[in-house]
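One-letter codes give the sequence; backbone shape is given numerically. An example follows:

. . .
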Amino acid sequence: MSAGEGHLSATARVARAAGLVILLFVASRALGLVREMVISHQFGTGGTLDAYLAAFRLPDILFQVVAGGALASAFIPTFATYWERGDRAGAWRMASAVVNLVLIVTVLLAAASWLLAPWLVRTAIAPGFGADRQALTAGLMRIMLVTPAIFGVSGVIMGILNARQHFALPAVAPVLYNLGIIGGAVFLAPSMDVRGLAVGVVAGSLAHLLVQIPALTRQGMRYAPVLGLRDAGVREVGRLVVPRMVGLAAVQLNFLVNTILASGLAAGSLAALNYAWLLMLLPQGVVAQAVATAAFPTFSAQAARGDLEEMRSTLMSTLRAVLYLALPAAAGLVVLRGPLVEVIFQRGAFTAASTGRVAGALALYALGLPAHSAVEILVRAFYAMHDTRTPVGISVAAMVLNIGLSLALMAGFGAAGWAPYGGLALANSLATTLEMGALLGVLRRRLGGLGGRSLSTSLARCGVAAAVMAVLLLALLRLLAGQSAWLLAGAGLAAGAAVYAGVSLALGATEPRAMAAALQRRGSRRGGAETARRGDPQ
């Protein structure tokens, strides 16, 4: 196979996998949106929801730092290396040891956090809350502290399945997680108040784990009750995961700082930031996270074979496709922020004032959407090459910058008479954009170039098309002023998509045709490959 054929094969493989994952991510994000609509109807942007969001922070930190993205970024390349050299027994032994170690560490940390919950809330998580809200936050945290251990095991299983190019059930898992929280909000919250949400989080985490077990069984995993502390693969995972844990700890520390800062502002500030952040993550998850999830095993296999030229080509085609979709999404969120927030959330306890607060934060978060999307792809290229130190160092620097910008911009916004929490959102966008630039610079040197001219040309086309789209959407909003938010949002989304696609194609953008061709190849191969696929658990 020639290098060109290898690149086409790898790119097509990523595109086909991404097509499946995107569909399931859309379902997950749609349910996530329903989840937030249900929660907003029940609790609005009041202080009770602030307590839930603050309580969620520590369990999330434990999972993310110990067994979340940090572990996956170290585990998948190591597991792929075992598999590429044909050592199946070693791969399963290493996977078993990682599961056992993760379970032990998360249980111990969660137990210590359970004992210290009131003190942690009072001194570190929400010092700005009153005594009643601090007590509520500690109680909610204790309920949800069971989830890090569950998600830890589930995360390792997800890494195994993704490394084996199985994406279906791992992508279904977040759907069930969201259903668990929705069930807690609908069926438990009326009698248990916000504690029903916490119980729903636990139920959703169990579903997240259990749905992946059948696929793992079909992969033929042979579990071993070992710790493998002297195993070379376990040590390699440890070597890679420690820097990544530092980086994720920095990210979570940044979220914690935002929680602390927002806890001292007007009630509902933290909830407004949370809703805006989740809306920004909707397109980011559907586009960037889905594509990055599908691309990471391919990057890892290419790096394990030493095919850096093929990896560079796959990386750039993937990055261009993600930015092609992220730029218009960012412009659309900025221009249509008011109607979108009103349509999605404004009902029940979520008032017009709540819509204004969330829409303001959303516009500032959306400015960083292209950078957030690019970072999802770029960091996985480093992880595939068994380098977690470089992206972690850049991430820590971005975190420090983010905290400094948060303090400065929050004060500046307050002095200007604007909502101070808007400064927190803008700081995040600025810091992430600089992080993206630093990652690109290092990767360009590491891979001997990134096809910078093709990337800059692609970005220029997309930028012009997104700007034209934004101008026409502003004109449309003026033309339809006074109409219902449903009409404004629906017409805006439809017109924006049509204008962006038309202008970008007129300017010569190749990404739409490439994505359509990849999806067409996926569809055409399904029928002819059905017999061959019967032995494939995916």
